[in-house]
Amino acid sequence: MTFLVKICGLRDVATLDAALAAGAGMVGFVHFARSPRHLELADAARLVARARARGQAQSVVLAVDPDDATVARIVEEVKPDWLQLHGAETPERVAAIQAAHDVGLIKAIGVAGPEDVTRALTYDAADLLLLDARPPRDATRPGGNGVAFDWALAGDGRLPPFLLSGGLHPDNVADAIAGLAGQASLAGVDVSSGVENAPGVKDTALVGAFIRAAVGAACQRPSMKEPVA
Ligand SMILES: O=C(O)c1ccccc1NCC(=O)[C@H](O)[C@H](O)COP(=O)(O)O
């Protein structure tokens, strides 16, 4: 089993290459116009192709309540390994996208309490869940806000494979992973704001520090025979 470290919100070749060189196992590209990390699909396609050519990381395009046409363009023009749905998509909508397209589906769930974890269990069609903090009331986007939730909620033993995200950074990611040592469904961690020095501006030193800290902590997990970022 591998342990995934996902660096989300990459916007250019330099930071993508830095994340790949540091050993990222997943790289994420945001397609959401209100985000400081927004990429047009043509730019995302170039970065996905570059990541694929390097052969080491899986690529993810993130969208918020995308319509059918946008989903089709992401799958057919950008060709990521994964589509991350980060809006209010229902379980039925996720199932419909799954039935119509050959792409891995990540469903992001905003978590503030145990009821959100129970809600996550209804997304059978998702290949992977991503547990994130529920956005603050005044947030202008549903994710990428650098806000953490109570990670203990992710210790619910009923969860299928999931990525932990929300407010992670190089100095807390090891504690987050260690706190979920008994949770075999923890498939990896995801970060955006915690490796930036301004909204949308990745800091390559922080990216490297985050990956090193996460891989080091993953190596200590009982289920990890061969941890890979
Ligand atoms: O990054 C964005 O701007 C964004 C916009 C809309 C929906 C989701 C978005 N980002 C999601 C992520 O980057 C992560 O998957 C997750 O929310 C963790 O973000 P952070 O707390 O900033 O590390």
* Major β-sheet profile: 8 strands, parallel, barrel
CATH superfamily placement: Aldolase class I
CATH class descriptor name:
Alpha Beta
Q: Provide the succession of SSEs.
A: EHEHEHEHEHEEHEEEH
Which percent range describes the beta-strand content? 15-25%
Molecular shape: globular
Small-molecule components bound: ligand LARABZUK
Q: C-alpha Rg, in Å? A: 16 Å
Task: Tell me the number of helical segments per DSSP (H or I, 4 or more residues long).
Answer: 7
Please tell me the total number of domains: 1
The CATH topology assignment is TIM Barrel
Amount of helix: 25-40%
The appropriate CATH architecture is Alpha-Beta Barrel
**How confident is the prediction overall: mean pLDDT?**
95
Q: Provide the structure class.
A: alpha/beta
The low-confidence runs, each spanning 5 or more residues with pLDDT under 50, are none
The span between the termini is: 11 Å
Keywords: Amino-acid biosynthesis, Aromatic amino acid biosynthesis, Isomerase, Tryptophan biosynthesis
GO molecular function: phosphoribosylanthranilate isomerase activity
Pathway: Amino-acid biosynthesis; L-tryptophan biosynthesis; L-tryptophan from chorismate: step 3/5
Protein name: N-(5'-phosphoribosyl)anthranilate isomerase
